[in-house]
Design a protein that fits this description.
The protein is α+β, with helices and mostly antiparallel strands. The chain has an eight-stranded mixed β-sheet with strand order 6-5-9-3-2-12-15-14, with no helix packed on it. Strands 1-20-21-19-18-17 form a six-stranded mixed β-sheet. The longest helix has 21 residues, at about 360-380. The radius of gyration is 26 Å and the shape is globular. The chain binds zinc ion (ZN). Zinc ion binds near residues 1, 2, 292, 322 and 345.
Protein backbone atom coordinates (compact mmCIF):
# COMPACT_ATOMS: atom_id res chain seq x y z
CA UNK A 1 0.00 0.00 0.00
CA UNK A 2 1.20 3.54 -0.51
CA UNK A 3 0.19 6.33 1.81
CA UNK A 4 -0.94 9.67 0.46
CA UNK A 5 1.98 12.04 0.49
CA UNK A 6 1.55 14.66 3.14
CA UNK A 7 -1.68 13.41 4.72
CA UNK A 8 -0.93 10.63 7.07
CA UNK A 9 -3.14 9.07 9.63
CA UNK A 10 -1.59 9.19 13.02
CA UNK A 11 -3.14 7.36 15.84
CA UNK A 12 -3.80 9.61 18.77
CA UNK A 13 -3.13 7.30 21.66
CA UNK A 14 -3.87 8.25 25.23
CA UNK A 15 -1.06 7.90 27.71
CA UNK A 16 -2.88 5.01 29.24
CA UNK A 17 -3.04 3.19 25.90
CA UNK A 18 0.63 3.87 25.29
CA UNK A 19 1.44 2.49 28.71
CA UNK A 20 -0.70 -0.58 28.03
CA UNK A 21 0.90 -1.12 24.62
CA UNK A 22 4.39 -0.85 26.07
CA UNK A 23 3.43 -3.33 28.77
CA UNK A 24 2.04 -5.83 26.24
CA UNK A 25 5.08 -5.43 23.98
CA UNK A 26 7.41 -5.87 26.93
CA UNK A 27 5.63 -9.08 27.86
CA UNK A 28 6.20 -10.41 24.33
CA UNK A 29 2.76 -10.20 22.76
CA UNK A 30 2.30 -12.91 20.14
CA UNK A 31 1.50 -11.15 16.86
CA UNK A 32 0.42 -14.37 15.13
CA UNK A 33 -3.18 -15.46 14.90
CA UNK A 34 -3.79 -19.10 15.81
CA UNK A 35 -5.33 -21.16 13.02
CA UNK A 36 -7.37 -24.35 13.29
CA UNK A 37 -8.01 -24.52 9.56
CA UNK A 38 -6.39 -23.86 6.21
CA UNK A 39 -8.48 -22.23 3.48
CA UNK A 40 -7.60 -23.72 0.08
CA UNK A 41 -9.84 -21.76 -2.27
CA UNK A 42 -12.39 -18.96 -2.36
CA UNK A 43 -14.96 -18.81 -5.19
CA UNK A 44 -16.66 -15.43 -4.86
CA UNK A 45 -19.75 -14.49 -6.90
CA UNK A 46 -20.65 -10.81 -6.58
CA UNK A 47 -23.47 -8.71 -8.04
CA UNK A 48 -24.93 -5.33 -7.13
CA UNK A 49 -28.04 -3.22 -6.68
CA UNK A 50 -26.53 0.20 -7.22
CA UNK A 51 -29.58 2.29 -6.29
CA UNK A 52 -29.86 0.63 -2.91
CA UNK A 53 -26.09 0.10 -2.52
CA UNK A 54 -26.48 -3.60 -1.96
CA UNK A 55 -23.79 -6.21 -2.65
CA UNK A 56 -25.08 -9.73 -3.26
CA UNK A 57 -22.58 -12.45 -2.43
CA UNK A 58 -22.48 -16.16 -3.12
CA UNK A 59 -19.11 -17.42 -1.87
CA UNK A 60 -17.81 -20.96 -1.56
CA UNK A 61 -14.92 -21.49 0.86
CA UNK A 62 -12.94 -24.72 0.54
CA UNK A 63 -10.89 -25.54 3.62
CA UNK A 64 -9.38 -28.33 5.66
CA UNK A 65 -8.75 -28.74 9.41
CA UNK A 66 -5.10 -28.09 10.24
CA UNK A 67 -4.07 -30.19 13.20
CA UNK A 68 -7.20 -31.47 14.97
CA UNK A 69 -10.62 -32.69 13.75
CA UNK A 70 -13.29 -29.99 13.48
CA UNK A 71 -17.06 -30.23 13.86
CA UNK A 72 -17.53 -26.50 13.50
CA UNK A 73 -15.84 -23.74 11.51
CA UNK A 74 -15.38 -20.08 12.48
CA UNK A 75 -14.80 -17.50 9.74
CA UNK A 76 -14.55 -13.71 9.82
CA UNK A 77 -17.63 -11.83 8.57
CA UNK A 78 -18.83 -8.32 9.48
CA UNK A 79 -22.10 -6.82 8.24
CA UNK A 80 -22.91 -9.82 6.02
CA UNK A 81 -26.60 -10.77 6.17
CA UNK A 82 -26.65 -14.52 5.52
CA UNK A 83 -29.69 -16.12 3.91
CA UNK A 84 -28.28 -19.63 3.56
CA UNK A 85 -25.19 -21.66 4.44
CA UNK A 86 -24.84 -25.06 2.79
CA UNK A 87 -22.28 -27.74 2.34
CA UNK A 88 -21.18 -28.29 -1.24
CA UNK A 89 -21.51 -30.21 -3.48
CA UNK A 90 -24.91 -31.50 -2.31
CA UNK A 91 -25.95 -28.12 -0.91
CA UNK A 92 -27.17 -29.62 2.35
CA UNK A 93 -28.16 -26.81 4.71
CA UNK A 94 -26.07 -26.18 7.82
CA UNK A 95 -26.93 -24.32 11.01
CA UNK A 96 -24.84 -21.29 11.97
CA UNK A 97 -24.74 -18.28 14.23
CA UNK A 98 -23.11 -14.89 13.84
CA UNK A 99 -21.51 -12.82 16.61
CA UNK A 100 -18.45 -10.65 17.28
CA UNK A 101 -17.47 -10.32 13.64
CA UNK A 102 -17.58 -14.05 13.02
CA UNK A 103 -19.84 -16.70 11.59
CA UNK A 104 -19.72 -20.10 13.34
CA UNK A 105 -20.95 -22.97 11.18
CA UNK A 106 -21.91 -26.35 12.62
CA UNK A 107 -20.68 -29.11 10.31
CA UNK A 108 -22.73 -32.26 9.63
CA UNK A 109 -20.00 -34.42 11.23
CA UNK A 110 -16.43 -34.21 12.46
CA UNK A 111 -13.80 -33.67 9.75
CA UNK A 112 -10.13 -34.65 10.06
CA UNK A 113 -7.07 -32.76 8.83
CA UNK A 114 -6.70 -33.30 5.08
CA UNK A 115 -10.43 -33.78 4.49
CA UNK A 116 -12.00 -31.16 2.25
CA UNK A 117 -14.84 -29.03 3.63
CA UNK A 118 -16.68 -26.92 1.07
CA UNK A 119 -19.00 -24.30 2.51
CA UNK A 120 -21.29 -22.12 0.42
CA UNK A 121 -22.59 -18.83 1.77
CA UNK A 122 -25.45 -16.76 0.30
CA UNK A 123 -25.59 -13.27 1.72
CA UNK A 124 -26.09 -9.59 1.08
CA UNK A 125 -24.47 -6.43 2.39
CA UNK A 126 -26.48 -3.22 2.44
CA UNK A 127 -24.50 0.01 2.25
CA UNK A 128 -21.19 -1.60 3.30
CA UNK A 129 -19.24 0.38 5.89
CA UNK A 130 -15.88 -0.94 4.73
CA UNK A 131 -14.46 -3.33 2.14
CA UNK A 132 -16.69 -2.33 -0.81
CA UNK A 133 -17.06 1.31 -1.89
CA UNK A 134 -19.83 2.61 -4.18
CA UNK A 135 -18.68 5.82 -5.87
CA UNK A 136 -21.20 7.97 -7.75
CA UNK A 137 -20.31 9.50 -11.10
CA UNK A 138 -19.05 13.09 -11.02
CA UNK A 139 -20.27 15.02 -14.04
CA UNK A 140 -20.10 18.66 -12.88
CA UNK A 141 -18.01 20.76 -15.27
CA UNK A 142 -16.15 22.52 -12.44
CA UNK A 143 -15.22 19.27 -10.68
CA UNK A 144 -12.83 16.42 -11.46
CA UNK A 145 -15.08 14.18 -13.52
CA UNK A 146 -15.16 10.43 -13.26
CA UNK A 147 -17.57 7.59 -14.05
CA UNK A 148 -19.57 5.72 -11.41
CA UNK A 149 -17.54 2.88 -9.95
CA UNK A 150 -17.43 0.21 -7.30
CA UNK A 151 -14.15 -0.94 -5.81
CA UNK A 152 -12.76 -2.77 -2.80
CA UNK A 153 -10.05 -2.11 -0.24
CA UNK A 154 -9.21 -4.96 2.14
CA UNK A 155 -5.84 -4.23 3.75
CA UNK A 156 -5.42 -4.75 6.55
CA UNK A 157 -8.55 -6.68 7.58
CA UNK A 158 -11.59 -5.46 5.65
CA UNK A 159 -12.04 -8.46 3.33
CA UNK A 160 -14.40 -9.80 5.99
CA UNK A 161 -16.81 -6.94 5.14
CA UNK A 162 -17.60 -8.57 1.78
CA UNK A 163 -16.80 -12.27 1.94
CA UNK A 164 -16.58 -14.81 4.78
CA UNK A 165 -12.89 -15.58 5.18
CA UNK A 166 -9.93 -16.28 7.40
CA UNK A 167 -8.89 -12.66 7.19
CA UNK A 168 -5.26 -12.68 8.32
CA UNK A 169 -2.11 -12.63 6.14
CA UNK A 170 -0.82 -16.04 7.30
CA UNK A 171 -3.61 -17.90 5.48
CA UNK A 172 -3.08 -18.14 1.73
CA UNK A 173 -5.59 -19.57 -0.73
CA UNK A 174 -6.22 -19.59 -4.46
CA UNK A 175 -9.27 -17.61 -5.55
CA UNK A 176 -11.87 -17.10 -8.22
CA UNK A 177 -14.15 -14.15 -8.75
CA UNK A 178 -17.37 -13.97 -10.78
CA UNK A 179 -18.28 -10.28 -10.90
CA UNK A 180 -21.55 -9.31 -12.57
CA UNK A 181 -21.64 -5.78 -13.97
CA UNK A 182 -23.87 -3.62 -16.14
CA UNK A 183 -23.49 -3.54 -19.89
CA UNK A 184 -20.71 -1.14 -20.86
CA UNK A 185 -18.77 -1.65 -17.65
CA UNK A 186 -15.70 -3.74 -17.02
CA UNK A 187 -14.63 -5.64 -13.91
CA UNK A 188 -10.96 -5.95 -12.97
CA UNK A 189 -10.21 -8.89 -10.68
CA UNK A 190 -7.32 -11.01 -9.46
CA UNK A 191 -5.55 -13.41 -11.78
CA UNK A 192 -6.29 -14.35 -15.35
CA UNK A 193 -9.56 -13.38 -17.01
CA UNK A 194 -11.14 -16.75 -17.85
CA UNK A 195 -14.15 -15.31 -19.67
CA UNK A 196 -16.83 -12.65 -19.64
CA UNK A 197 -20.28 -14.00 -20.25
CA UNK A 198 -23.28 -12.04 -21.46
CA UNK A 199 -26.33 -12.78 -19.27
CA UNK A 200 -29.97 -12.87 -20.46
CA UNK A 201 -30.79 -9.71 -18.44
CA UNK A 202 -28.12 -7.70 -20.28
CA UNK A 203 -25.53 -7.88 -17.49
CA UNK A 204 -22.05 -9.33 -18.01
CA UNK A 205 -20.19 -11.67 -15.64
CA UNK A 206 -16.39 -11.43 -15.53
CA UNK A 207 -14.66 -14.58 -14.31
CA UNK A 208 -11.11 -14.24 -12.93
CA UNK A 209 -8.95 -16.95 -11.44
CA UNK A 210 -5.80 -16.82 -9.26
CA UNK A 211 -3.98 -20.11 -9.58
CA UNK A 212 -1.39 -19.43 -6.90
CA UNK A 213 -2.25 -18.89 -3.23
CA UNK A 214 -2.38 -15.37 -1.78
CA UNK A 215 -3.44 -13.67 1.43
CA UNK A 216 -7.04 -12.53 1.95
CA UNK A 217 -6.12 -8.83 2.10
CA UNK A 218 -4.98 -8.96 -1.56
CA UNK A 219 -8.38 -10.00 -2.96
CA UNK A 220 -10.09 -7.19 -4.85
CA UNK A 221 -12.23 -5.94 -7.69
CA UNK A 222 -12.77 -2.67 -9.50
CA UNK A 223 -15.93 -2.11 -11.55
CA UNK A 224 -16.70 0.85 -13.81
CA UNK A 225 -16.90 2.31 -17.26
CA UNK A 226 -13.17 2.23 -18.06
CA UNK A 227 -11.10 2.01 -21.19
CA UNK A 228 -8.18 -0.41 -21.16
CA UNK A 229 -4.66 0.41 -22.32
CA UNK A 230 -2.79 -2.79 -23.09
CA UNK A 231 0.83 -3.81 -23.33
CA UNK A 232 2.88 -6.93 -22.84
CA UNK A 233 6.06 -7.81 -20.96
CA UNK A 234 7.41 -11.14 -22.24
CA UNK A 235 4.21 -13.23 -22.09
CA UNK A 236 2.67 -11.23 -19.22
CA UNK A 237 -0.31 -9.13 -20.37
CA UNK A 238 -0.29 -5.63 -18.84
CA UNK A 239 -3.46 -3.57 -18.53
CA UNK A 240 -4.16 -0.04 -17.37
CA UNK A 241 -7.82 0.78 -16.76
CA UNK A 242 -8.58 4.47 -17.05
CA UNK A 243 -11.44 6.92 -17.54
CA UNK A 244 -12.08 7.41 -21.27
CA UNK A 245 -11.21 11.14 -21.14
CA UNK A 246 -7.97 10.48 -19.23
CA UNK A 247 -6.41 8.16 -21.79
CA UNK A 248 -3.40 10.40 -22.40
CA UNK A 249 -2.31 10.92 -18.78
CA UNK A 250 -3.01 7.27 -17.99
CA UNK A 251 -0.71 6.35 -20.87
CA UNK A 252 2.10 8.42 -19.34
CA UNK A 253 1.57 6.91 -15.88
CA UNK A 254 1.50 3.40 -17.36
CA UNK A 255 4.42 3.83 -19.72
CA UNK A 256 7.33 2.61 -17.57
CA UNK A 257 5.65 -0.46 -16.06
CA UNK A 258 7.39 -2.80 -18.50
CA UNK A 259 10.82 -1.35 -17.80
CA UNK A 260 10.22 -1.60 -14.03
CA UNK A 261 9.23 -5.26 -14.40
CA UNK A 262 12.41 -5.96 -16.32
CA UNK A 263 14.49 -4.14 -13.67
CA UNK A 264 12.87 -5.94 -10.75
CA UNK A 265 13.31 -9.32 -12.44
CA UNK A 266 16.98 -8.51 -13.03
CA UNK A 267 17.57 -7.29 -9.47
CA UNK A 268 15.75 -10.11 -7.66
CA UNK A 269 16.58 -12.88 -10.12
CA UNK A 270 12.91 -13.94 -9.89
CA UNK A 271 10.52 -13.73 -12.85
CA UNK A 272 7.32 -11.75 -12.34
CA UNK A 273 5.41 -14.37 -10.33
CA UNK A 274 1.85 -13.99 -11.67
CA UNK A 275 -0.13 -14.43 -14.90
CA UNK A 276 -0.99 -10.80 -15.59
CA UNK A 277 -0.54 -7.31 -14.18
CA UNK A 278 -3.34 -4.76 -14.24
CA UNK A 279 -3.49 -1.27 -12.78
CA UNK A 280 -6.77 0.61 -12.37
CA UNK A 281 -7.38 4.24 -11.43
CA UNK A 282 -10.28 4.85 -9.04
CA UNK A 283 -12.00 7.83 -7.45
CA UNK A 284 -12.35 8.46 -3.73
CA UNK A 285 -9.33 6.38 -2.70
CA UNK A 286 -9.00 8.62 0.28
CA UNK A 287 -6.07 8.13 2.59
CA UNK A 288 -3.82 6.24 0.22
CA UNK A 289 -2.21 6.51 -3.21
CA UNK A 290 -2.31 2.85 -4.20
CA UNK A 291 -2.89 -0.73 -3.16
CA UNK A 292 -1.07 -3.80 -4.45
CA UNK A 293 -4.12 -6.05 -4.87
CA UNK A 294 -2.66 -9.20 -6.35
CA UNK A 295 -2.20 -8.81 -10.15
CA UNK A 296 -4.68 -5.91 -10.00
CA UNK A 297 -3.18 -2.81 -8.40
CA UNK A 298 -5.57 0.01 -7.49
CA UNK A 299 -4.31 3.59 -7.90
CA UNK A 300 -5.89 6.83 -6.68
CA UNK A 301 -6.98 8.80 -9.78
CA UNK A 302 -5.73 12.02 -8.18
CA UNK A 303 -2.25 10.50 -7.95
CA UNK A 304 -2.29 9.19 -11.55
CA UNK A 305 -3.05 12.75 -12.73
CA UNK A 306 0.33 13.93 -11.42
CA UNK A 307 1.86 12.21 -14.46
CA UNK A 308 0.72 15.23 -16.50
CA UNK A 309 3.18 17.61 -14.81
CA UNK A 310 6.99 17.56 -14.77
CA UNK A 311 7.10 17.86 -10.95
CA UNK A 312 4.67 14.94 -10.66
CA UNK A 313 6.58 12.54 -12.86
CA UNK A 314 8.76 11.09 -10.06
CA UNK A 315 5.73 10.87 -7.74
CA UNK A 316 3.86 8.67 -10.22
CA UNK A 317 6.97 6.63 -11.06
CA UNK A 318 7.51 5.97 -7.35
CA UNK A 319 3.88 4.99 -6.91
CA UNK A 320 3.83 2.63 -9.89
CA UNK A 321 7.16 1.03 -8.97
CA UNK A 322 6.17 0.72 -5.30
CA UNK A 323 2.96 -1.17 -6.08
CA UNK A 324 4.66 -3.30 -8.75
CA UNK A 325 7.48 -4.21 -6.32
CA UNK A 326 4.84 -5.59 -3.97
CA UNK A 327 4.24 -8.37 -6.53
CA UNK A 328 7.49 -9.87 -5.21
CA UNK A 329 7.56 -8.29 -1.73
CA UNK A 330 4.10 -8.62 -0.17
CA UNK A 331 2.03 -10.52 -2.71
CA UNK A 332 4.36 -13.46 -3.49
CA UNK A 333 6.25 -13.38 -0.17
CA UNK A 334 4.00 -11.94 2.53
CA UNK A 335 4.48 -10.73 6.09
CA UNK A 336 3.24 -13.49 8.41
CA UNK A 337 1.48 -11.00 10.69
CA UNK A 338 1.08 -7.22 10.94
CA UNK A 339 4.11 -6.77 13.20
CA UNK A 340 6.24 -7.81 10.20
CA UNK A 341 4.58 -5.43 7.72
CA UNK A 342 7.90 -3.63 7.20
CA UNK A 343 9.00 -6.65 5.13
CA UNK A 344 6.27 -5.68 2.62
CA UNK A 345 6.46 -1.90 2.87
CA UNK A 346 10.15 -1.37 3.60
CA UNK A 347 11.03 -3.45 0.53
CA UNK A 348 8.45 -1.71 -1.70
CA UNK A 349 9.84 1.67 -0.56
CA UNK A 350 13.43 0.51 -1.10
CA UNK A 351 12.56 -0.78 -4.58
CA UNK A 352 11.27 2.69 -5.55
CA UNK A 353 14.86 3.85 -4.97
CA UNK A 354 16.29 0.75 -6.68
CA UNK A 355 14.28 1.56 -9.82
CA UNK A 356 15.56 5.13 -9.72
CA UNK A 357 19.12 3.84 -9.43
CA UNK A 358 18.60 1.74 -12.59
CA UNK A 359 16.88 4.54 -14.48
CA UNK A 360 18.77 7.64 -13.31
CA UNK A 361 21.92 6.46 -11.51
CA UNK A 362 23.38 6.17 -8.03
CA UNK A 363 23.01 9.83 -7.01
CA UNK A 364 19.26 9.71 -7.66
CA UNK A 365 19.00 6.49 -5.61
CA UNK A 366 20.83 8.05 -2.66
CA UNK A 367 18.80 11.26 -2.93
CA UNK A 368 15.55 9.24 -2.80
CA UNK A 369 16.73 7.43 0.32
CA UNK A 370 17.94 10.66 1.94
CA UNK A 371 14.40 12.05 1.56
CA UNK A 372 13.06 8.88 3.22
CA UNK A 373 15.66 9.22 5.98
CA UNK A 374 14.80 12.86 6.62
CA UNK A 375 11.09 12.05 6.73
CA UNK A 376 11.74 9.34 9.29
CA UNK A 377 13.97 11.56 11.45
CA UNK A 378 11.34 14.33 11.45
CA UNK A 379 8.64 11.82 12.35
CA UNK A 380 10.67 10.07 15.02
CA UNK A 381 11.06 13.37 16.88
CA UNK A 382 7.32 13.89 17.28
CA UNK A 383 5.72 10.47 16.91
CA UNK A 384 3.52 9.27 19.74
CA UNK A 385 3.82 5.77 18.39
CA UNK A 386 7.53 5.08 18.08
CA UNK A 387 8.32 1.43 17.50
CA UNK A 388 11.01 -0.88 16.14
CA UNK A 389 10.64 -2.00 12.51
CA UNK A 390 9.25 -5.26 13.78
CA UNK A 391 6.28 -3.68 15.46
CA UNK A 392 4.95 -5.79 18.30
CA UNK A 393 2.42 -3.09 19.18
CA UNK A 394 0.90 -3.21 15.65
CA UNK A 395 -2.87 -2.92 15.48
CA UNK A 396 -4.84 -4.03 12.43
CA UNK A 397 -5.95 -0.57 11.34
CA UNK A 398 -4.56 2.33 9.30
CA UNK A 399 -2.02 3.17 12.04
CA UNK A 400 0.02 0.31 10.52
CA UNK A 401 0.96 2.41 7.52
CA UNK A 402 3.41 4.75 9.21
CA UNK A 403 6.72 6.42 8.40
CA UNK A 404 8.77 3.90 10.40
CA UNK A 405 7.34 0.91 8.53
CA UNK A 406 7.85 2.52 5.11
CA UNK A 407 10.69 5.04 5.14
CA UNK A 408 12.84 3.59 7.90
CA UNK A 409 12.22 0.14 6.41
CA UNK A 410 13.58 1.23 3.04
CA UNK A 411 16.60 3.00 4.55
CA UNK A 412 17.50 0.00 6.73
CA UNK A 413 17.47 -2.24 3.64
CA UNK A 414 19.91 0.18 2.01
CA UNK A 415 22.17 -0.10 5.07
CA UNK A 416 21.91 -3.88 4.94
CA UNK A 417 23.04 -3.65 1.32
CA UNK A 418 26.01 -1.48 2.36
CA UNK A 419 26.84 -3.90 5.19
CA UNK A 420 26.97 -7.13 3.18
CA UNK A 421 27.92 -5.63 -0.19
CA UNK A 422 25.96 -5.35 -3.40
CA UNK A 423 26.38 -8.90 -4.75
CA UNK A 424 25.61 -10.60 -1.42
CA UNK A 425 22.60 -8.34 -0.86
CA UNK A 426 20.87 -9.22 -4.13
CA UNK A 427 21.84 -12.86 -3.74
CA UNK A 428 20.27 -12.72 -0.26
CA UNK A 429 17.11 -11.14 -1.72
CA UNK A 430 16.97 -13.98 -4.24
CA UNK A 431 17.36 -16.64 -1.53
CA UNK A 432 14.71 -14.93 0.63
CA UNK A 433 12.21 -14.73 -2.24
CA UNK A 434 12.89 -18.23 -3.64
CA UNK A 435 12.81 -19.96 -0.29
CA UNK A 436 9.49 -18.39 0.74
CA UNK A 437 7.77 -18.18 -2.65
CA UNK A 438 3.97 -17.95 -2.18
CA UNK A 439 4.51 -18.27 1.57
CA UNK A 440 4.81 -16.01 4.62
CA UNK A 441 7.87 -14.50 6.27
CA UNK A 442 9.20 -12.92 9.45
CA UNK A 443 12.30 -10.76 9.92
CA UNK A 444 14.52 -13.68 10.88
CA UNK A 445 13.83 -15.27 7.45
CA UNK A 446 15.42 -12.23 5.83
CA UNK A 447 18.32 -12.43 8.30
CA UNK A 448 18.97 -16.12 7.49
CA UNK A 449 18.92 -15.47 3.74
CA UNK A 450 21.32 -12.53 4.08
CA UNK A 451 23.64 -14.49 6.40
CA UNK A 452 23.73 -17.35 3.91
CA UNK A 453 24.44 -15.04 0.97
CA UNK A 454 27.10 -13.00 2.76
CA UNK A 455 28.72 -15.55 5.06
CA UNK A 456 28.37 -12.92 7.83
CA UNK A 457 26.56 -13.13 11.15
CA UNK A 458 23.96 -10.37 11.15
CA UNK A 459 22.24 -10.68 14.53
CA UNK A 460 23.87 -7.40 15.66
CA UNK A 461 22.46 -5.62 12.58
CA UNK A 462 18.89 -6.90 13.07
CA UNK A 463 19.05 -6.29 16.85
CA UNK A 464 19.78 -2.59 16.47
CA UNK A 465 17.95 -1.72 13.23
CA UNK A 466 14.97 -4.11 13.18
CA UNK A 467 14.24 -5.10 16.78
CA UNK A 468 15.12 -1.71 18.32
CA UNK A 469 13.84 1.80 17.56
CA UNK A 470 15.53 5.13 16.85
CA UNK A 471 18.86 5.92 15.26
CA UNK A 472 22.31 7.19 16.28
CA UNK A 473 22.64 10.93 16.86
CA UNK A 474 26.35 11.52 16.49
CA UNK A 475 28.32 14.38 17.96
CA UNK A 476 31.83 14.36 16.56
CA UNK A 477 34.66 16.45 17.96
CA UNK A 478 38.16 16.52 16.47
CA UNK A 479 41.46 18.26 16.97
CA UNK A 480 44.99 18.08 15.67
CA UNK A 481 46.94 16.57 18.54
CA UNK A 482 49.58 18.64 20.20
CA UNK A 483 52.02 15.81 19.51
CA UNK A 484 53.03 15.96 15.82
CA UNK A 485 51.42 13.37 13.52
CA UNK A 486 48.29 12.86 15.62
CA UNK A 487 44.60 13.64 15.16
CA UNK A 488 42.10 12.98 17.93
CA UNK A 489 38.45 12.24 17.03
CA UNK A 490 35.75 11.61 19.61
CA UNK A 491 32.39 10.17 18.55
CA UNK A 492 29.56 10.56 21.03
CA UNK A 493 26.20 8.84 20.49
CA UNK A 494 23.77 11.34 22.01
CA UNK A 495 20.42 9.62 21.28
CA UNK A 496 18.22 9.23 24.31
CA UNK A 497 18.44 5.67 25.53
CA UNK A 498 14.80 5.06 26.37
CA UNK A 499 14.49 1.30 26.61
CA UNK A 500 13.49 1.10 22.96
CA UNK A 501 16.51 2.89 21.45
CA UNK A 502 20.02 1.41 21.88
CA UNK A 503 22.40 3.50 23.98
CA UNK A 504 25.13 2.58 21.48
CA UNK A 505 24.69 1.48 17.87
CA UNK A 506 27.62 -0.29 16.23
CA UNK A 507 28.77 0.52 12.71
CA UNK A 508 31.84 1.36 10.68
CA UNK A 509 32.10 5.13 10.27
CA UNK A 510 33.94 6.62 7.32
CA UNK A 511 35.80 9.83 8.15
CA UNK A 512 37.43 11.85 5.38
CA UNK A 513 40.31 14.00 6.60
CA UNK A 514 40.87 17.04 4.40
CA UNK A 515 44.56 17.78 4.43
CA UNK A 516 46.77 20.18 2.47
CA UNK A 517 47.66 17.41 0.06
CA UNK A 518 44.16 16.04 -0.47
CA UNK A 519 41.55 13.88 1.27
CA UNK A 520 42.44 10.81 3.35
CA UNK A 521 39.78 8.20 4.16
CA UNK A 522 39.74 6.51 7.56
CA UNK A 523 37.16 4.03 8.83
CA UNK A 524 36.41 4.01 12.56
CA UNK A 525 34.76 1.00 14.17
CA UNK A 526 32.11 2.43 16.44
CA UNK A 527 30.55 0.24 19.13
CA UNK A 528 30.38 2.34 22.31
CA UNK A 529 28.37 5.37 23.36
CA UNK A 530 31.50 7.51 23.61
CA UNK A 531 34.69 6.57 21.82
CA UNK A 532 37.93 8.40 21.08
CA UNK A 533 40.35 7.56 18.32
CA UNK A 534 43.88 8.77 17.69
CA UNK A 535 44.74 8.75 14.01
CA UNK A 536 48.27 8.93 12.73
CA UNK A 537 48.18 11.73 10.15
CA UNK A 538 51.39 13.72 9.71
CA UNK A 539 49.81 16.48 7.62
CA UNK A 540 47.65 19.04 9.43
CA UNK A 541 43.91 18.39 8.97
CA UNK A 542 41.81 21.40 7.93
CA UNK A 543 38.40 19.81 8.28
CA UNK A 544 36.65 16.44 8.32
CA UNK A 545 33.67 14.90 6.54
CA UNK A 546 31.61 12.10 8.02
CA UNK A 547 30.29 9.16 5.99
CA UNK A 548 30.49 10.89 2.63
CA UNK A 549 29.03 7.96 0.70
CA UNK A 550 26.06 7.52 3.10
CA UNK A 551 26.80 3.94 4.13
CA UNK A 552 25.19 4.56 7.51
CA UNK A 553 22.38 6.58 6.08
CA UNK A 554 20.19 6.58 9.17
CA UNK A 555 21.99 8.91 11.54
CA UNK A 556 22.33 12.57 12.33
CA UNK A 557 25.75 14.19 12.63
CA UNK A 558 26.94 17.30 14.39
CA UNK A 559 30.62 18.12 13.91
CA UNK A 560 31.95 20.29 16.68
ZN1 LIG B 1 3.06 -0.47 -0.15
Amino acid sequence: MERKSGSRCFQVASLFLLFLTALVAAKGQNPDRPRTLDVKHYAIHISFDRDKKIVYGDTTVELTPLSAPLNSVDLDAIGLKFSKVTMSPRESPLTYRTSDGQIAINLDRSYSPGENISLRFNYSITDPKKGVYFIDAEKAANKFQHPAQIWTQNEPEDGRYWFPSFDFPSDKATSEEFITVQKGEVAVGNGRLIDNVQNADGTVTYHYRMNVPHSTYLTSFVVGDFIKLSDKYKDIPLGFYAYADRRRVAGIAFSRTKEMMEDFEALTGISFPFEKYDQAMVAGFQDFDGMENVTATTLADTSVLFAEYPFGKPIVENLVSHELAHSWFGDMVTCKNWSELWLNEGFATFMEAAFREKAYGRANYIQTLIQDRDEFIADDAVSKNRHPLRNLSAKADNSLFDVTTYQKGGVVLHMLRETVGDAAFWKGVNIYLSRHKFDNVISSDLQSAMEEASGQKLQWFFDQWVYAAGYPKLEVTWMNDSAPGGLKITVNQAQKSDGMTPAAFQFPLDVTLLTESGPVLQTLKISKRVESFTINEPRPVKSIEIDKSEKILLKSVKIK
